[in-house]
Amino acid sequence: MKTTLLDRFQGSLIGLTVGDALGGKFEGQTAAHILSRVPSLDALMQYPAKSLWYTDDTQMMIGVAETLITHQSMEEEALCKAFVQNYVSSRGYGQGARAVLEAMEEGRDYLFTANNIFPGGSYGNGAAMRVAPIGLFFRDHLQELISQARLSALPTHTHPLGIEGAIILAGAVGYVSIIDSIDKNTFLDHLFTVSSSSVFQEKIELTRRISRPEAIIQLGNGIAAQESVITAIACFLQSPDSFEETIGHAIFLGGDTDTIAAMAGAISGAYLGIDAIPKDLIAKLEDSPKGKAYIFDLAHKLFDLYADKSGSLIL
Ligand code: F2R
Ligand code: MG
Ligand code: MG
Prior knowledge:
Layout: H1 5-23, H2 31-37, H3 41-45, H4 56-71, H5 76-86, H6 95-105, H7 110-116, H8 132-137, H9 142-153, H10 160-176, H11 184-194, H12 198-208, H13 229-238, H14 243-252, H15 257-272, H16 279-284, H17 292-310
Bound molecules: ADP-ribosyl-L-arginine (F2R) and magnesium ion (MG) (2 copies).
């Protein structure tokens, strides 16, 4: 059966959530330690027995999706309000993100904090990990996708690499949501066009030469956008027809496992659709007020708005 566009919207947001929640069990651990806990992909897919709780990655994606649904663009005040309303500090936020969100919450000059907390602003992967809804919603308007991805990053990430990571990830999600069959080099050509720095471009070129999962680690597995965004894309490219393998590659790398799996899961879900995500992993996702039912509903609302704006063009 053909994958519908609604399947892809749901696949991307739920794929991000599953990658984040499963990867969150291993964030910060080494590849060797993870392998000692879960020796195979099957063991990983069956871990843990009970529930999967998402982390800051999904919580911030929810804020981006809510803002898009209300305003159809990254209206700064609304985006900050959504981030603050959703913020639960125990969900594992980055140190800089916490400081910026707390400045927003207290009505302080959050842009001053964002600009000064690290030299040149943050290049963390926090803007990329939350950007998938923009990739979906602006999938057929590349310039708008780029400009909205930039706006979605800016309240917390002002370093050019942090912003560029978000643009590339949105570009990846948008691109795969349109195609039925992937050609690695054409996809990487597209990402090269969307990118702007030699830092990312060199990694895009390196990805062309990666053909084994063990080689993906060359791209990095860290918390910086430049150490994780292309890594997530390579995890998807290694197994474009399998959601499980895609997030497995991401998690077995160690390091920033929740975020690399969230980004890889968002791309894989946008390409394969919701039916490619194992039902028992979805069943284990948290049922909190903004848990899986809410995220399914966000994807549906985003799809309805997209269909309205696109008219008869949607597939
Ligand atoms: N922060 C984490 N995990 C760490 C531990 C969590 C622990 N389990 C807990 O519960 O406390 N995960 C989440 O953070 C990443 C996304 O981070 P984001 O939103 O980009 O935050 P931040 O703080 O802006 O950047 C992250 C770190 O990157 C380094 N950094 C950024 N810019 C820098 C610069 N210009 N110079 C030097 N270093 C820079 C800093 O160490 C930042 O703290 C995701 O992994 C998410 O899951
Ligand atoms: Mg996280
Ligand atoms: Mg992380």
